[in-house]
Amino acid sequence: MKNVCGSPPYYQRTFYDLLAMVRQVGTPTLFFTVSTADLRWPDLIQVIARQYGKFYTDEQ
């Protein structure tokens, strides 16, 4: 049953695999997700630009 995706034993095994990875490699320091619409969100672009000391308006 632990090989059936979505079953409780599957998630338990996956959880323990993740814990083992954290023990061996360490905790992750960056988690980054991207969607296909990331360039169409001016707010997101402004927030990222501010991290690099640049400031953009909606018109830019």
Automatic annotation (TrEMBL):
<dbReference type="InterPro" id="IPR025476">
    <property type="entry name" value="Helitron_helicase-like"/>
</dbReference>
<dbReference type="Pfam" id="PF14214">
    <property type="entry name" value="Helitron_like_N"/>
</dbReference>
<feature type="domain" description="Helitron helicase-like">
    <location>
        <begin position="3"/>
        <end position="48"/>
    </location>
</feature>
<protein>
    <recommendedName>
        <fullName>Helitron helicase-like domain-containing protein</fullName>
    </recommendedName>
</protein>
